[in-house]
Amino acid sequence: MVTRSFEAMGTEVEIFLDASEGERAESALDRAEAEFERLEQIMSRFRADSELSQLNREGVVEAGPDLVRVVELALEARESSGGLFDPTVHGALVAAGYDRSFAELPLDGPAAGDPGACGGRVSVEGSTIQLESSTQLDLGGIGKGYTVDRVAAVLARTGSCLVNAGGDLAVRGGAWPVGIADGLTVELTRGAIATSGRDRRSWRRDGEAQHHLIDPSTGRPARTDLLRVTVVAASAVEADVLAKIAFLGGEVDVPRVLVTSDGTVVLAGGLA
Length: 272
Known about the structure:
The structure is a single chain. By secondary structure, this protein is an alpha+beta fold. The protein has a single domain (2-268), classed as Roll (T-fold). The chain has 6 helices and 15 strands. Strands 1-2-6-7-8-13-14-15 form an 8-stranded antiparallel beta sheet, with helices on one face. The protein has a 3-stranded antiparallel beta sheet with strand order 3-5-4, with helices on one face. β6 (161-165) and β7 form a beta hairpin. The chain is globular and about 55 Å long. 42% of the residues are buried.
């Protein structure tokens, strides 16, 4: 087993590859780390020179295939969830105070601003992505899931693997014990796990608690008795989408763990 950890996409990435130490394994880990960097450079809203930042500034961009695909996936999720999952929450996040990378974010500051409306029109025609006026995208969660899936596929050519980016993880081959709540571990042989919660990326504005999970119906951080939701799904993209939907109270039909504000753990979707 060879491992590597590094910082990417605002979180710690851990990679486990079931392969013998040597040049072949190290080369696979190098490719995996490079893929995280490549996709972050495309999809980060915090990098001024990213494709996503260009789109948000100019309202239209001739995008590469990765940005096109992630935007398509996000729009499909918005449609299928009835708007519970919505990539057009960029303005709401900024209004809530999340206007820079979390590592640079002041933990308190002036009152949150007016979030404006979510749900703006986004069109994808071939490689052209166009945004309705005043609409901007945030692809943080689904972009991370897409990257985890891509990196797992790259590593699987060398051996069974697990890729974990701050709790969004995917496996290819093997059997991996994964802790998903206090005292609860599942053995994952395929697929992915993702967690959405308000206990990790949180801050205050004018003393009022804020977090990064926006309710598109209000444009503000979701008010809920849930602390976090963890789901198991076929891919990290799907898991990320379904975890967000479940956190906002939507119906999902996958194995999941819900933790409430008082620490109560609820198992659903076949987990026991």
